[in-house]
């Protein structure tokens, strides 16, 4: 990764484009603003912040877990789209970065990421022409993407031939499951796709992949059983393709979001002659909602002999001010759908700045409008003007709402200090 490009983000001039920052930051660079020693009190609301201690804990915990499990980590960068955080993940031992579409790939290449996995098919002729140019210009650039049909193989091959591709594009045959997202629906179908790849001169069969998280949404016995069954089909496919893979490197076998990576380790970690890659992305920020409840490190995976270091910590917090108390048990906050995620659960009230703890009380967020949150049953704990810290659920739909996110030294401190500003590119 280009450390200079990441470092140059500190010279970006701040202004009205960055809703996380106050007018006092206008005209200063990131570096100059941080040198003024800002604190949380200097920032307005609504706001989203990252907790430095939690980020560091999660980074180290997941790196250790994967190392102990014997799997490579290629975290899904679409969660944060933050090159500075990608750099931290790579420095902690991640093998590369996973992304989801062409615009995200272009961001990664702009910051010099040299190992990229596209957890998707790339069929756009203009995108394949760009990719062919990137591969030709940089011999150290390693790239792979998915294919899930004979037709997608044909379209890729035609577009790459038209682009005059000099290097073959590595592809992984994607296996899906009934009711899931993309991916061949049967092992036999996936084998047919692999044979089509072998016939395409512009492509190279580098492995197989898939995503178990689309097939279950909880840690019930049924959900875990569905995931295990799918992963065993992926293992079966790997066995069926023995002798068909390109021979100059171990074939990649990749799966794993942030909900079931323990099962990936159990079912795929010991596959013979495979380079097993985990793609978890949400682990870095974690959350105080969906992933807090379903993460393997909250389900006892740290006690199974792989990894350790305890559960992951929620690093993302929303901050919102009470702007209205129109009814005795209703308060309106100045943060809404434009500021905080809501697709995997509503924000949870945690505390009032300089006041009461709200965790464990009856206080709850019951709805979000575009720019307001409905806080109910907080009683006298949240008067007009009070600022609340909110736990959020689902980091993947939090980062995209903010182009610059302040990093706090400790979100639980009496007066948290701003130690960094994370730039995102969505």
TrEMBL record:
<dbReference type="InterPro" id="IPR029066">
    <property type="entry name" value="PLP-binding_barrel"/>
</dbReference>
<protein>
    <submittedName>
        <fullName>Alanine racemase</fullName>
        <ecNumber>5.1.1.1</ecNumber>
    </submittedName>
</protein>
<feature type="domain" description="D-serine dehydratase-like">
    <location>
        <begin position="315"/>
        <end position="409"/>
    </location>
</feature>
<dbReference type="Pfam" id="PF14031">
    <property type="entry name" value="D-ser_dehydrat"/>
</dbReference>
<dbReference type="InterPro" id="IPR051466">
    <property type="entry name" value="D-amino_acid_metab_enzyme"/>
</dbReference>
<comment type="similarity">
    <text>Belongs to the DSD1 family.</text>
</comment>
<dbReference type="Pfam" id="PF01168">
    <property type="entry name" value="Ala_racemase_N"/>
</dbReference>
<keyword id="KW-0413">Isomerase</keyword>
<keyword id="KW-0456">Lyase</keyword>
<dbReference type="InterPro" id="IPR026956">
    <property type="entry name" value="D-ser_dehydrat-like_dom"/>
</dbReference>
<dbReference type="GO" id="GO:0008784">
    <property type="term" value="F:alanine racemase activity"/>
</dbReference>
<dbReference type="InterPro" id="IPR042208">
    <property type="entry name" value="D-ser_dehydrat-like_sf"/>
</dbReference>
<dbReference type="InterPro" id="IPR001608">
    <property type="entry name" value="Ala_racemase_N"/>
</dbReference>
